[in-house]
């Protein structure tokens, strides 16, 4: 008798960074001072500069690249995040490395995640 195989986690849960293009975009915007807003999953998850963030919140939070801050002018149910000091240093290096990649590599990453 064989044991049933455990269900595989979705790609976004298996990968360290599920979508590298989105991750770099999030770092770039956060470096510029934009704020990541996390609302309930039912309402769509996270938003950064008016665009949904599907995959990057987990790695950003898990590796301490963002920190929550109090926004007294925001919505009570929403949580607001900025880059941490560690996140700023990481974002500087990651964005510089991204710009050094040839255009065709950056496009390929955008297509495949």
Write up this protein:
With 113 residues, the chain is of the alpha+beta class. It has five helices and five strands, in the order H-H-E-E-E-H-E-E-H-H. It has helices spanning 11-14, 20-31, 57-62, 85-100, 103-112; strands at residues 36-38, 46-48, 51-53, 66-69, 79-83. It has a five-stranded antiparallel sheet. A hairpin with a 7-residue loop joins strand 1 (36-38) and strand 2. Helix 2 (20-31) packs across helix 4. The longest helix has 16 residues, at 85-100. It is globular and about 45 Å long.
Q: Which helices and strands, and how do they pair?
A:
Elements: H1 11-14, H2 20-31, E1 36-38, E2 46-48, E3 51-53, H3 57-62, E4 66-69, E5 79-83, H4 85-100, H5 103-112
Antiparallel strand pairs: 1-2, 1-5, 2-3, 4-5
Helix pairs in contact: 2-4
Summarize the structure.
The chain is α+β, with helices and mostly antiparallel strands and 113 residues long. The protein has helices at 11-14, 20-31, 57-62, 85-100, 103-112; strands at residues 36-38, 46-48, 51-53, 66-69, 79-83.
Which structural traits does this protein have?
113 residues; alpha+beta; 5 strands; globular; disordered N terminus
* Category by helix and strand content: alpha+beta
Q: Which of globular, elongated, flat, extended, rod-shaped describes the shape?
A: globular
Strand numbers in spatial order across the main sheet: 3-2-1-5-4
Please give the largest β-sheet: 5 strands, antiparallel
């Amino acid at each position: 008798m064989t044991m049933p195989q455990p269900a595989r986690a979705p790609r976004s849960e298996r990968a360290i960074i599920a979508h590298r293009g989105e991750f770099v975009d999030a770092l770039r915007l956060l470096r510029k001072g934009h704020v990541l807003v996390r609302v309930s999953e039912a309402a769509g998850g996270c938003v950064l500069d008016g665009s949904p963030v599907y995959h990057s919140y987990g790695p950003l939070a898990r590796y301490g690249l963002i920190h929550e801050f109090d926004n007294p002018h925001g919505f009570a149910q929403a949580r607001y995040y900025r880059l941490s000091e560690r996140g700023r240093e990481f974002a500087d290096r990651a964005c510089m490395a991204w710009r050094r990649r040839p255009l065709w590599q950056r496009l390929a990453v955008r297509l495949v995640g």
